[in-house]
Amino acid sequence: MELLALKGVSKSFGALKVTDDIHISVTEGEVLGILGPNGAGKTTLFNLISGDVKVDAGEIEFNGRSINGAAPFQRCRDGIGRSYQVPQPFGAMSVFENLVTAACFGAQVPEKEAWDIAWEVLQQTGLQRHANTPAGSLTLLNRKRLELARALSTRPRLLLLDEIAGGLTEHEAHELVDELKRIKQSGMTMIWIEHVVHALLSVADRLLVINFGKTLCEGHPEAVMQDAEVRRVYMGLEA
After folding, report:
1. Are residues 50 and 160 in the same domain?
2. Do 69 and 160 belong together in one domain?
3. How many domains does the chain fold into?
4. Domain containing 119: what range?
5. Which of 122, 125, 42 is nearest to 114 (CA)?
6. How many angstroms separate the CA atoms of 220 and 148, rounded?
7. Using an 8 Å Cβ cutoff, are 96 and 128 in contact?
8. Is residue 210 part of a domain?
9. Low-confidence spans in the chain with pLDDT less than 50
10. pLDDT 10s digits, 208-230
């Protein structure tokens, strides 16, 4: 079943066209990986899906209906959760409090149910022993985990991950990938922007490469990574 569809979506900032006639279809339970050089329009694409930025043209449909006019909080409550490239926790609040807040306001559940959700997500993301730690004092890996955990606490049907492995060591990235594999096995639908290619390839079912706001290539991960134009534009390799 198709969960998300972008149909001819475009966005400009002044004379700069950041997203240019993008068409994307994501089915339930699928993990779509997105690659592209810096400035290709990847994060803007997420901002359009989450509602942080409005489309200039085209249609975004979620669960079979248009969400073009929906505010970000409405999209979150409808089932679109996201992480940010730079973690944005409430630094003075504990990890547990961050998750309870996400569940109360994102999933719109009563506080008692939010506590249950928060505890479940702590276990799911390996943050149990940091439950009472102020979020602002976490290591980078655990801030990334918390960013993931906050998104999961909103009870999403679609999870948007923006460079969640960025800045991590190879060992830390592998730890995070193992957690994402378990989340994928639960049936979660994900769209993941990432520059750590080996991490993305180990989870994604399909890859989309964009450049200058346009689709460059899309398909099975192995075929996409062997595409001559992708190798030239993204990896700087001549065929």
Report:
1. yes
2. yes
3. 2
4. 89-155
5. 122
6. 25
7. no
8. yes
9. 239
10. 999 999 999 999 999 999 999 99
